[in-house]
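Researcher: Re-running this chain for the archive, since the previous output was lost when a drive failed. Same request as before.
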Amino acid sequence: MTNSEINFKVELDDNRVPERIFWDATENPNEGINETKAISIGVWDQYHKGLLGINLWTKDMPVDEMNHFVVDLVGNLAQMITDSTQDEVVISALHEAGQKIAKHLNEQAKKEQSQQSQQ
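Model: Regenerated structure tokens:
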């Protein structure tokens, strides 16, 4: 049997707010520890039948990147359901949610660009 590990290191400020987040994995295609601005980990608690979630982001994570991260997470959930249950209703709902969020973000970006060009 082979083993695979995923490791995280979070550097906190004096108020315990993440300043830097590092991760590494035995099957990481990049060598060495990698820095990231956000992580979202979901673990299924089989005993209590619920989610154990860890969501962390650094205080310098840009808002637009956080929003993009959320869209990618929704897409990732849709792919997970496709691979595991093939439940078309859930897959469709997740795709619709991701598209709705992406549309909102695109409209928001256009509005911000328009406001900047008027200044």
